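so my prof wants the structure for this chain in the tokens format not the other one, which i didnt know existed until like an hour ago. anyway here's the sequence
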Amino acid sequence: MSVEIKVPTLGESVTTATIAKWLKKAGDTVAADEPVVELETDKVSVEVSAPQAGVLGAELVKEGDEVEVGALLTTLESGAGGAKAAPKAAEAPKKAEAPAPKPAPAPAAAAPAPATDAAAALPAARKLMAENNLSAGQIGAGSGKDGRITKGDVQAFLTSPPASAAAPAPKAPRQDDPREERVKMTRLRRTIARRLKDAQNTAAMLTTFNEIDMQPAMDMRAEFQDAFVKKYGVKLGYMSIFSKAVIAALQEFPAINAEIDGEDVIYRNFINLGIAVGGPNGLVVPVLRDAEKLSHAEIEKKIAGFGKAAREGTLKIDDLAGGTFSITNGGIYGSMLSTPILNAPQSGILGMHNIVERPVAIKGQIVIRPIMYVALSYDHRIVDGKEAVSFLVHVKKHVEDPRTLLLGL
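here's what i got, hopefully its the right format
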């Protein structure tokens, strides 16, 4: 009995995948739930497993091919004889009765002469074409009877000429230097590039900055780190402190947690916080769902788990879907300042940076303090400048004095 192996449902908004690698070959015996092919989606890699034990059929798609959800990848023949049955089936057409000989084709008719502008266009259209020095070939097939060009077709062409009409001359192929190496971009990297560029093209993106005195947070970590690790088995990091501060600020300014959908604004009564983590295939943003309900310890455990899964390539599709706001920490790589790009369709993203000792004035005295610059990139279509600046001020207040979070201030 033959069982089909198809591309599974890949998660929210993911409709296609690329065949990354065949883990088993045609004719291989596989066990139930044994991975047979690896797919690469826009977000993560997914292994497709055999639904039962059997012998793998032919590979119907090649490595590097793009496939849609539900597409047939291969078949699985139950039992050891499955592989032998397939060739017999393939030979069956050879025994079929030979088709009757085809009659000789009739001589090909001569190709019709290209239509002139007079024949291809109606009178009013011809006049407008002459006034604008246009030919029927430029406009193409018309919407009139028998494909004739109407005056409306010419007006539409003048209003919005096809992209090909205004397209620049094709760029000459790049000549590679022998000392260079050309490597095809991974699907994940192509998707990152496309989505970031789409965000720039779609959103009215703006970035505002502030600085945070990290001394209170550093003192809190130093004082409670041992007790925190002993009780929860995970270290108290800055990310949970910032996450809590961001959650409180988002509750004060819900537009930064909202999304534009056409001409509507979707406000959310929950916070799904995306935390950017680096993996071997690039940056991914797993999501802390209902983050407003999580404690410091729960946030730290989930972030640690996401980091481990990203490094091992075991993140699930569901881990990456549904974020409403994102945090990215370039400081772990030494970044002093940056302008993070929105993770569309989200309306805001917070950029954290490295902590550097700087001279600052406090109560009339110049002192050295550990300072972090923070940046909020936001969609100005939905978030006003006042809201964005106030949001950062709230984050600053909560990080510089964590007691405000405890007191709900």
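also thought this was worth mentioning. Confidence is low (pLDDT under 50) at residues 81-98, 106-115.
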